Each structure stands twice: as structure tokens, then as C-alpha cells.
Fold tRNA (Adenine37-N(6))-methyltransferase TrmN6.
Amino acid sequence: MTDEEIGELSDDAIAGAWRLWQRVRGHRYSLDDVATAREAVEARPDAQRVIDLGCGIGSVTLMVAYKLRDARVIAIEAQAISHELARRNLARNALTERVRLIHGDLRTVALEERADLITGTPPYFDPKKSSPSTDSQRTYARIEMRGGIEDYVAAGARLLAPGGRLVVCGDARRPDRAMAGAAAAGLDVIAKRDVVPRADKDALFTIWTFALRSDGEPRGEGTGTIAEHPPIVARTADGARTEDAHALRRFFDQPVNEDEAPSPRARARRAR
């Protein structure tokens, strides 16, 4: 794939000194990637085998690999531009020996490996109710063209080792989809955490942690044992980054500006 086909790139920090390229006018990593990556690392900090489903440009793959230095990782991505950028981002951070990148559909890729930790940040816009972008990469990152959270949960269940954890985010308005997907795949819900973009807004997405039902005593829906972690609130009502947002940056060794001014756009919205 040529540079012309990919388009203009920005060069951005991701974790510590590690950096990634992402398209200026395409899919870019965001809060769901960072929050899901941290949740995953905390769920299995001892993981030796990791799989990232639908890895996109490699943002979650990079963050998890940065924190879990002894882990071997498999990253799967079907969209051509995102796969090419993931390939470049792994190479520039000297990860090609430790991370195996597969160009394929997570729903059909056949793997013999089983993972201690599996991650996924699926799209969650309904293709029947959403207009696709003129940009293919953006379309596949936002709209469920290759399935939604149920498909990620089903794929994760097939690839999860006993004692492993599957950490996936999904639309906060539709917890039923995550619960139904888990039940159909033979998984228990271990924990959930809502993520709120701004203090005066509702939760945007929920991060779910699943385990194989055969791991031990029954857990999850109906047992009252789902751990409901405190929500992450990314910004104040005025648009300033919160301590939650700073904690995410510190976790991945990114600088924090404690004196950052609130967002001018957010202030203008509240003034209207």
C-alpha cells in the first residue's frame, strides 16, 4: 500500500517513548482504546500470551505490549489501511519479534494459540441506522460492518485459556448485548466499568471483563458478583481533563499538564 493511498499521517505519543502513526483525516486512537488497554493490563498483569481482536492501527496492542514486557502478542485486523499502519507502528517500536500481526477477519481467523488476555474495542454503530463514511477506514472503525460486541465476545471465548480474561468495550446504552453475548459464548461477566466523556454527560461506553464459565464457581449475571468499578470521567463539565484522565496518561507514562485550561469549545457550549 502506497503513502498516497494512506494519506497524511501524524506522529503521536502512545506509551512512554513509543509512538505511532495515524491518519490525520482517518481513524485515530481515542479514550476507548486507552481505557480498555489499562483495564486489560490490570485484569491480567501476569499475562504471557495476549490477543488483540480488531487491533486497528495497533493502539491497544502497543499499550498492552508496553506494560506487559514479557508477553507475546497476536494482533488481528481486517481493514487494509489500518492493518498497514499497525504493521508500520509495530516495526517502528521494534515489536515485530514479539507481536505477530495477522491480516484477517477476527470472526474466521483460525488460531491454535490460547491467550491469558484478550482485548477488543469493537465499533458499535448499527449499519442499518448509520451512514457509512466516504473513507473506508473510518467506516469500519465506527460501524459494525464485520460484527459488533457479540462477535468479539464469541471470538474471544474460542481463544481464551483457562484462567484468562477477555476485556472488551461496548455501547453503554446496550449492556444487554454484552450480557447476551457472554451467555451465548459460555462466559461469565467478571467486572464492568462505565466511561463518561464529560461530567455533564451520560456514560459513552462500558468496559466489560469476562472469564470462561468453566474456570470455577459460577459468576456473573444472577449471582450478584459482577464487580462494578467506579466510572472513569474524562473531563469536567467545563472541558478540563480530570484526575481520571491524568491517571490514564500516567499509567502509560505520558506527561500530564496539571494546569491545562478547560476546553474553549466546552466553555462556549455551556455559555449558550
Remarks:
- The first helix runs from residue 3 to 6.
- Confidence is low (pLDDT under 50) at residues 220-224.
